[in-house]
Write the structure tokens for this entry.
Amino acid sequence: MSEVTAVPLRPIKKGAVTRLWLGIAVAVLGAGAVAWAGTSKSVAISGTNEQFFAWHAGQPGVKTTPSGLQYQILKAGKGPSPTDTDIALVNYKGALRDGTVFDESKQPTPFPVTQVVPGFSEGLKLMPKGSKFRLWIPSALGYGERSPDPKLPANSVLVFDVEMIDFRSQAEVQQQMMQQQIQQQMQGGGQPGGQPQQ
């Protein structure tokens, strides 16, 4: 018959059991929070536009305007921002929520601030020169139910990365264009509307 060696147990310190239960509770709550965050993100990404914007509003660095436009400053600029009477010169890339790119500038592109979708216009008016923003435009501030392109499903959320290179008033741009036309006419030979000199 073999002998069983008894190992004496040390007494448990006061409060050790309480700390053990607290540790277990914290671990369970942490795991629950991680699971909930993962679930809320997947629901938001694959869910409705409203679910997406509700979840996205709480993401770090994202700001929401009263109209529902969400934006994030990727690079801060300095000075004033364009107004409704200005033409903005920008680089941009437009994508859907899933990252599918539907439009992208190949070179700096001028946009009259009031002649773009309302969410893009609102975003431009927040951007000083030299800044770069990411805009999340709700469908009501974008194209809504009417899609201008087969690549854009109706009621799409539009996601734009926009770099504000410069902006000028429409009056300045028109004056500059007139001056260029006059210079071209003078270089082309004499009187405006006349035949070039031989």
In short: The radius of gyration is 30 Å.
